């Protein structure tokens, strides 16, 4: 009997990201406040003998259809860890811009783990999925959870964040410049500006990757300035290693007004809410 199922892959935003030190393994110890948006990719699955992936949607071209797609790597890792040979015909609707600081690939991999856990009837608890996810990428465990949380270590050590931000209106703006993550980390000035104290006011925190990302993609500075001058935001910040910047608003009318003010710049915009 064939069946079909679908799973949302919410976009990830970093409401704050503090870099602490470069590690011997080339990764960086950091602290971050992860949040997730109702906007995101969508992954669906149908019964099939082998594993396959078709990528559709606005950013399908940039995402790549290949065997190295993180969705297929996640599917293969889960099947191997569960000791099953079941197949899955996966279709990804790629709406999240690629190399954009929105964790698109990580969100897709995490959605694949949740979806196939259900589709294959594995009934793994979330903690077992997040443990497997850490091997797929630093942000994948947080994306498995897809709720506001505090990340440390490489980003894979997760704890609760005390504020409930669910429903908060958010505007995402990307100047349509792809920014590769590795070079932004490499461009960090290696100055430890201090930790994130859990529960700290978001406005008192930072994204320590901003200067290094702006050096690679100066348009990020234009986006941040435009979001500030549009007014009404309770927080304006670059997400991850950029180039997407986010602004949070107290209500949807304020978000709408800011989106209208930025609408003529030719940038990519998404109006959404935090989960
Ligand atoms: O884990 P992931 O493959 O998503 O990371 C992409 C790249 O980002 C890594 O190869 C590394 O250069 C950098 N990175 C880092 N420190 C982290 C997370 C990512 O240096 N905590």
Automatic annotation (TrEMBL):
<dbReference type="Pfam" id="PF08544">
    <property type="entry name" value="GHMP_kinases_C"/>
</dbReference>
<dbReference type="InterPro" id="IPR006204">
    <property type="entry name" value="GHMP_kinase_N_dom"/>
</dbReference>
<feature type="domain" description="GHMP kinase C-terminal">
    <location>
        <begin position="200"/>
        <end position="264"/>
    </location>
</feature>
<dbReference type="GO" id="GO:0016114">
    <property type="term" value="P:terpenoid biosynthetic process"/>
</dbReference>
<feature type="domain" description="GHMP kinase N-terminal">
    <location>
        <begin position="69"/>
        <end position="146"/>
    </location>
</feature>
<dbReference type="GO" id="GO:0019288">
    <property type="term" value="P:isopentenyl diphosphate biosynthetic process, methylerythritol 4-phosphate pathway"/>
</dbReference>
<dbReference type="GO" id="GO:0050515">
    <property type="term" value="F:4-(cytidine 5'-diphospho)-2-C-methyl-D-erythritol kinase activity"/>
</dbReference>
<feature type="binding site">
    <location>
        <begin position="97"/>
        <end position="107"/>
    </location>
    <ligand>
        <name>ATP</name>
    </ligand>
</feature>
<dbReference type="Pfam" id="PF00288">
    <property type="entry name" value="GHMP_kinases_N"/>
</dbReference>
<dbReference type="InterPro" id="IPR004424">
    <property type="entry name" value="IspE"/>
</dbReference>
<protein>
    <recommendedName>
        <fullName>4-diphosphocytidyl-2-C-methyl-D-erythritol kinase</fullName>
        <ecNumber>2.7.1.148</ecNumber>
    </recommendedName>
</protein>
<dbReference type="GO" id="GO:0005524">
    <property type="term" value="F:ATP binding"/>
</dbReference>
<keyword id="KW-0808">Transferase</keyword>
<dbReference type="InterPro" id="IPR036554">
    <property type="entry name" value="GHMP_kinase_C_sf"/>
</dbReference>
<feature type="active site">
    <location>
        <position position="12"/>
    </location>
</feature>
<feature type="active site">
    <location>
        <position position="139"/>
    </location>
</feature>
<dbReference type="InterPro" id="IPR014721">
    <property type="entry name" value="Ribsml_uS5_D2-typ_fold_subgr"/>
</dbReference>
<comment type="similarity">
    <text>Belongs to the GHMP kinase family. IspE subfamily.</text>
</comment>
<keyword id="KW-0067">ATP-binding</keyword>
<comment type="function">
    <text>Catalyzes the phosphorylation of the position 2 hydroxy group of 4-diphosphocytidyl-2C-methyl-D-erythritol.</text>
</comment>
<dbReference type="InterPro" id="IPR020568">
    <property type="entry name" value="Ribosomal_Su5_D2-typ_SF"/>
</dbReference>
<keyword id="KW-0414">Isoprene biosynthesis</keyword>
<keyword id="KW-0547">Nucleotide-binding</keyword>
<dbReference type="InterPro" id="IPR013750">
    <property type="entry name" value="GHMP_kinase_C_dom"/>
</dbReference>
<comment type="pathway">
    <text>Isoprenoid biosynthesis; isopentenyl diphosphate biosynthesis via DXP pathway; isopentenyl diphosphate from 1-deoxy-D-xylulose 5-phosphate: step 3/6.</text>
</comment>
<keyword id="KW-0418">Kinase</keyword>
């Amino acid at each position: 009997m064939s069946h079909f199922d679908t799973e949302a892959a919410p976009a990830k935003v970093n409401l704050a990201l503090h870099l602490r030190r470069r590690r011997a393994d080339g990764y960086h110890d950091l602290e971050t406040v992860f949040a997730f948006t109702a906007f995101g990719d969508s992954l669906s699955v149908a019964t099939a003998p082998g594993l396959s992936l078709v990528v559709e949607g606005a950013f399908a071209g940039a995402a790549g259809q290949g065997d190295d797609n993180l969705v297929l790597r996640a599917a293969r890792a889960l099947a191997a860890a569960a000791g099953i040979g079941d197949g899955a015909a996966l279709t990804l609707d790629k709406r999240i811009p690629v190399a954009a600081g929105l964790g698109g690939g990580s969100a897709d991999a995490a959605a694949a783990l949740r979806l196939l856990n259900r589709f294959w009837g594995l009934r793994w608890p979330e903690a077992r999925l997040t443990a497997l996810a850490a091997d797929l990428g630093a942000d994948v465990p947080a994306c498995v959870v897809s709720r506001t949380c505090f990340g440390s270590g490489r980003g894979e050590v997760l704890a609760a964040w005390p504020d409930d931000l669910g429903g908060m209106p958010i505007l995402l703006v990307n100047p349509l410049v792809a920014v590769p993550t590795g070079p932004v980390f490499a461009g960090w000035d290696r100055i430890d500006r201090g930790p994130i104290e859990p529960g700290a006011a978001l406005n008192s925190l930072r994204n320590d990757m901003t200067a290094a990302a702006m050096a690679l993609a100066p348009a990020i500075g234009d986006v941040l300035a435009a979001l500030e001058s549009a007014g009404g935001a309770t927080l304006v910040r670059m997400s991850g290693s950029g180039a997407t910047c986010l602004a949070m608003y107290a209500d949807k009318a304020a978000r709408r007004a800011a989106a209208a003010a930025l609408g003529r710049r030719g940038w990519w915009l998404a109006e959404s809410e935090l989960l």
